[in-house]
Amino acid sequence: MTTLVTPAPAARAPGAGRLYVRRFGRNRAALLGVALFVLLVLFSVLGGLLSPFAYTDADFTALTRPPDGTHWFGTNQGGNDVYAEAVHGLRRSLVIAVSVSVLTIVLAAVIGAGAAYLGGRVEKLTLAVIHFLLVVPSFLILALVSHRLAGDWRVLILVLTVFGWMTTARVVWSLSTSLRERDYVLAAEFMGVRPWQIVLRHIIPNLGSLLVVNLTLGVVATVLGETALSFLGFGVQPPDVSLGTMLADGSGSITSAPWLFAFPAGLVVLLTVSMTLVGDGLRDALDPTSVSAASGGTR
């Protein structure tokens, strides 16, 4: 998902950072999103300390048991504790989502801004590659590659990154074509600053609002993409667990054992809602043309 945000001016006022924080702090929905995300991260990191079970432990005396005092979220068909699986699955999905979002933003910023500034053949070749990859059925390639490589989550991060940077890079390129004509860029050229230093120091920083917003919304897109792949059996593979694999395991027993599907589905919903609220709040705070930012930012 790509969100257009007006690039910030080259020279910011000294109190611009405090102004952005103040705008964000007035947005109650965004603060709710931050609180939800922090709670989910704490749950994924510390939640395992509250349970005596590991996600790989199997209790063969409690197969498909509903939630009770021993197994708080119940157990699955193999006797695994669903609470322990939810903690590990959320942590695995968060690691994949945040890693892919950061890597794709870095790639998109460097490639898009670099192509716009260098121009000429480099720009034409880069755009040709971007447009080609955009029309390639990436989901099928992702499914094929991740499945053939045994569903390793590290490989999944790699392939999701390779096929996830193009749309943002196209937007970065479009905005950078105007930034390359700014006075501060021309002054840096006159002073003999190297092209890549100009890209990294003068062009990319002025796209900060766009990149920050897309970083948060990219987490949502990656969570949904990883969940879909794992749900279809092409993502994370057993014995590892993610929210997608839990949804796949619980989808066949929604009526007989609804807790197997309900708990991971609830975590996916909370995660996507929290990051969407944070992304919207950052967009409103960083974009001076935003209607809600101009009106005070409260919702």
Please give a quick description of this structure.
The protein has 299 residues and is mainly alpha-helical. The protein has helices at residues 16-25, 28-46, 82-118, 120-135, 138-148, 153-162, 166-179, 183-190, 195-203, 208-231, 243-251, 259-286, 291-294.
Structure write-up:
Helices cover 67% and strands 0% of the residues. With 299 residues, it is mainly alpha-helical. It is elongated, with a radius of gyration of 22 Å.
List the helices and strands and how they pair.
Elements: H1 16-25, H2 28-46, H3 82-118, H4 120-135, H5 138-148, H6 153-162, H7 166-179, H8 183-190, H9 195-203, H10 208-231, H11 243-251, H12 259-286, H13 291-294
Helix pairs in contact: 1-12, 2-3, 2-12, 3-4, 3-6, 3-7, 3-9, 3-10, 3-11, 3-12, 4-7, 8-9, 10-11, 10-12, 11-12
